[in-house]
Amino acid sequence: MSQQTAGGRITSVKMFDDDMRAEINLTTGGGQVLTLRLTDNKQSAFSGMVACATSALTIPPTGWVQVTYDDDDREINDMEIRS
Predict the structure, then answer these.
(1) Confidence at residue 63, expressed as pLDDT on a 0 to 100 scale
(2) Could you tell me the pTM of the whole model?
(3) Distance CA 54, CA 38 (A)
(4) What is the arithmetic mean of pLDDT over 6-12?
(5) Strand residues in 1-83 grouped as ranges (E)
(6) What's the CATH code, domain 3-82?
(7) Cα–Cα nearest to 33, from 14, 61, 12
(8) What does each C-alpha distance from 68 to 10, 19, 23, 65 come to in angstroms?
(9) Model confidence over 23-49: pLDDT tens digits?
């Protein structure tokens, strides 16, 4: 399981009916769109990522989200909003 880091703008947050299941689309500075899953390890971590991701949708065009994720399952390990 290798760790990847990417930065860009969150362009969508999708919530599923399943317990603790959500994903984001992250458009990187190079124009690549990554679909990444929010963590499902703990309820508090999942809830924090949902709050962080949805608030990032309101960041002006200069806002930036930095994520680290597992390359094999595309699950986010950490997320940071930068302005």
Answers:
(1) 76
(2) 0.89
(3) 12
(4) 94
(5) 3-15, 22-28, 33-37, 64-70, 76-82
(6) 2.40.50.140
(7) 12
(8) 14, 22, 14, 10
(9) 999 999 889 999 999 999 999 999 999
